[in-house]
Amino acid sequence: MNIYTEKTEEGKQLYAALKAEYEAICKKGLKLDMSRGKPGSEQLDLSMDMLDVVNSHSDMKTLNGTDVRNYGILDGIPEAKELFAALLGAKPEEVIVGGNSTLTFMYDTIARGMLHGFADSVKPWVQCGKLKFLCPAPGYDRHFAICEHFGIEMIPIEMREDGPDMDTIEQIVGSDASVKGIWCVPKYSNPQGITYSDKVVTRFAKLKTAAPDFKIFWDNAYCVHHLTESGDEILDLLEEAKKYGTQDHVFMFTSTSKITFPGAGVTAMAASVHNIEYLKKLMDVQMISSDKINQLRHVRYFKDLDGIKTHMKRHAAILKPKFDMVTGTLQKELGGLGIAKWTTPKGGYFVSVDTLEGCARRTIELCANAGVKLTEAGATYPYHEDPKDTNIRLAPTLPPVKELKITISLFCLCVKLAALERVFVQ
Amino acid sequence: MNIYTEKTEEGKQLYAALKAEYEAICKKGLKLDMSRGKPGSEQLDLSMDMLDVVNSHSDMKTLNGTDVRNYGILDGIPEAKELFAALLGAKPEEVIVGGNSTLTFMYDTIARGMLHGFADSVKPWVQCGKLKFLCPAPGYDRHFAICEHFGIEMIPIEMREDGPDMDTIEQIVGSDASVKGIWCVPKYSNPQGITYSDKVVTRFAKLKTAAPDFKIFWDNAYCVHHLTESGDEILDLLEEAKKYGTQDHVFMFTSTSKITFPGAGVTAMAASVHNIEYLKKLMDVQMISSDKINQLRHVRYFKDLDGIKTHMKRHAAILKPKFDMVTGTLQKELGGLGIAKWTTPKGGYFVSVDTLEGCARRTIELCANAGVKLTEAGATYPYHEDPKDTNIRLAPTLPPVKELKITISLFCLCVKLAALERVFVQ
To answer: pLDDT of B198-230, one tens digit each?
Structure first.
């Protein structure tokens, strides 16, 4: 018997007691925010020295002798291409180093598909009639927003423990030529922190697609964002795809937004040389170059991939206690109650909680009414439609540990209340 | 009688002498480039101190308390909006401060028109059938490239001494609803250095357009780029347009690409609040913010518009001798010969030379064969089609004065040779 899900006298008393507790907290006038995956200021402080490495006395030439202060070099300075190639698991000639945002890079890439198509397109996507994208869900709301913006129909794909449901994906992309792409966050996925297994990656590499210009948007946003010493690693999709001749399906992205500074970082894309050459021709009309000074700043600061990895350990040292606070409190407050499940990710930026069916929206609302802002209900699903109303994304990185403790305790209280309301409130 | 255009014995001897002179120069193996409007390294040095103003010890908060190192603020930090509002002649709420490139901002704006239309569009431009843009010519090749890229038909408009031919513009935009926009560089135009008169600007503000969503792309790239103490000023188009209720036609752009660093500067757009709000909604899907650290760097370095103006005087001090060298040599070598006309701009980045009909391409080719690269023939016209083959864009900013002297002397020689070839070579 579960007093949170069945009508009992004990449950009724518990509900009254928790409600009183909740109402007392409401009176405190909290104003806390755990809604977005933003780094905390301590993390931002880690990269402040980077602002000094390119200064008024610096040599402003790249390795190939180009003055980074002037026009030129569409696809990134050579040393940045090398660094990001290492980060993305690609060759420098398979890389374009871009501006400050992967979101922009992905949006622009889809906009190019819409208006011009890709190298393997028969015609621009705007001329293809109905377009569809597969959306492993729960997933990243800003990916879904791009599809909605361009009128691309989203098909949710269930997430499993080792990645999205590949059976369904294979079936759909193999038979429906209007399915043009899929969004993936293959490592420490947003919001569940799931890392795709080698088997899943290989199945992506082997995908037979009805659309000749099917694209996998492989948003490796958390590629080095481990929380533990033994972080997850994934198979290199581009390399794997080459084995099966599907390398032109693959667009991989990453950035330093959560390594150095969000909005002032550097982003990069990796794809087959064939795709890179095609995209560069289109990009050449849109821009002369991205910010090469900022690229140089990043390369001189980190020097190489090891430099980035060392830096990421400092992030982990700040983030691990926050994630431990969240998962520890969830376990302490909700463990064994049968009203919530959650992930304990080894990296990334989120903890994903699944409440009882129909309780996520109400839990978030209860938190909001008590002054604690969570990611909005449904945000992790296409069209903001969480079919069972269960998923809540917790973003523990921004608040200080002290605030986090208050926030997560309140959250657990609200999960309980929302469950009890199902039983005791009509 | 003109020995450059009529067959005479004297002309024949001159041709032989100049040809010998040219062939001697060809043997020198020159490798000089006067093709693009790039600042010279002396100019880039002017802004090096800006790289120190935001450093590891800086306060990283904006005036409204936002940490510039983190996510947020789509339309630019408040102090940057204020600075660019002053530069653009607009109010801060009429401004979006963007990334590193006006070219990208303009391209993205047109891409938004294509895929979504503007606030006053009946439907997205891709669904409107044939689209046309007016292109005052000679003009900026990268504007024209955007139209070509999107399949927008370009209609060349003749440039007069005080701006484009407004009679023709009024007639076309008033009657043809497929004409959706016009490219303008209203001050120190590329390549002629022409500044639009108040009368021309007012006629733009009064334009009655058949298309409800007609847009004036007002690329004020050289707004503070004077060469002389008494630089040109233009009427503020957005303010002027408000008088006639046409403010929604106006998209104004500028950047610091040629104030601080090309590719690592800051760009901004001004438009009616109505348009700004509409565009921000679309931009919100593409990006979270532009690089706010670089915005802060610029604002803290310049402080205000006066700071920029003072800085631009230092640029002028470097550029004026280069422009004087070019126009002085043109006058000395070609003055009164009746084979070339040129502009003497009071600002901007170019000197525009018109040769005799049919001589521009050949002049550029002769220069190239002697190791001097000029902007390619036809580049200043839509589709690279200079109808009379007369226009050559000289870009004197990048080469040091010493190189410039060699370059421009060779250029004058080639102008003469190309003219004489018309008479003496079949």
So the answer is: 999 999 999 999 999 999 999 999 999 999 988
DSSP line for A143-206: HHHHHHHTT-EEEEEEEETTEE-HHHHHHHHHH-TTEEEEEE--SS-TTT-----HHHHHHHHT
B289 contacts in A (CB within 8 Å)? 263
pLDDT values of chain A reduced to their tens digit, one per residue, 426 residues: 799 999 999 999 999 999 999 999 999 999 999 998 999 999 999 999 999 999 999 999 999 999 999 999 999 999 999 999 999 999 999 999 999 999 999 999 999 999 999 999 999 999 999 999 999 999 999 999 999 999 999 999 999 999 999 999 999 999 999 999 999 999 999 999 999 999 999 999 999 999 999 999 999 999 999 999 889 999 999 999 999 999 999 999 999 999 999 999 999 999 999 999 999 999 999 999 999 999 999 999 999 999 999 999 999 999 999 999 999 999 999 999 999 999 999 999 999 999 999 999 999 999 999 999 999 999 999 999 999 999 999 999 999 999 999 999 999 999 999 999 999 997
Residue whose entry in the numeric block shows the structure tokens 């449901």:
A165
Q: Of the candidates B138, B159, B19, which has an alpha carbon nearest to the alpha carbon of residue B389?
A: B138
The ipTM (two decimal places) reads 0.97
Concatenating the DSSP letter of every residue in A298-310 gives HHHHH-SHHHHHH
What is the CA B184 to chain-centroid distance, rounded?
A: 9
Q: Which residues of B touch A255 (CB under 8 A)?
A: none
Q: What torsion do the CA atoms of B44, B49, B51, B55 make, to the nearest 10 degrees?
A: 180
Coil, strand or helix: which one is A31? coil
User: How close is the nearest chain A Cα to the Cα of B70, in Å?
Assistant: 5
Beta strands in B224-283 (DSSP E): 250-255, 267-270
**Alpha-carbon span A16 to A20, nearest angstrom:** 6
Nearest-CB residue to A285 (from B38, B41, B149): B149
Q: Do A285 and B107 touch (CB under 8 A)?
A: yes
| Chain CA centroid to CA A8, Å | 42
- Asked if B48 lies within 8 A of A56 by C-beta distance, the reply is yes
Identify the pLDDT of residue A161: 96
Those residues whose C-beta lies under 8 Å from the C-beta of residue B374, and which sit 6 or more positions away, are B34, B35, B364, B367, B368, B392, B393, B394, B411
Decide if B75 contacts B96 (C-beta within 8 A): yes
- Tell me the pLDDT of chain B averaged across its residues: 97
Cβ of B264 and A67 within 8 Å?
no
Q: Is the pTM value of this prediction over 0.90?
A: yes
Which of B58, B149, B291 has the CB atom closest to A100's CB atom? B291
The identity of residue A101, as a single letter, is: S
* Integer angstrom CA distances of residue B356 from B350, B353, B422: 19, 10, 10
Q: Phi/psi zone of residue B188: left (φ > 0), alpha (ψ -120 to 50 degrees), beta?
A: left
Question: What are all long-range contacts of A23-32, with beta carbons under 8 Å and residues at least 24 apart?
Answer: A25/A370, A25/A410, A25/A413, A26/A369, A26/A370, A26/A371, A28/A371, A29/A371, A30/A370, A30/A371, A30/A372, A30/A406, A30/A410, A31/A371, A32/A371, A32/A372, A32/A373, A32/A399, A32/A403, A32/A406, A32/A407
pLDDT for A1 equals 79
What is the residue type of A272? Answer: S
Determine the residue of chain B that is closest to A59 in CA distance. Answer: B48
Cβ–Cβ of A71/B108 closer than 8 Å? Answer: no
Residues of chain A in contact with residue B114, where contact means CB-CB under 8 angstroms, are 115
Check whether the bond before A191 is cis (ω within 30° of 0).
yes
Place of tokens 């009414």: A369
Nearest CA in chain A to B74: A263
Alpha-carbon torsion, ordered B160, B164, B168, B170, to 10 deg: -140
Distance from CA of B136 to the nearest CA of A (A): 19
Residue in chain B closest to A263 (alpha carbons) equals B291
Distance CA A97, CA A75 (A): 6
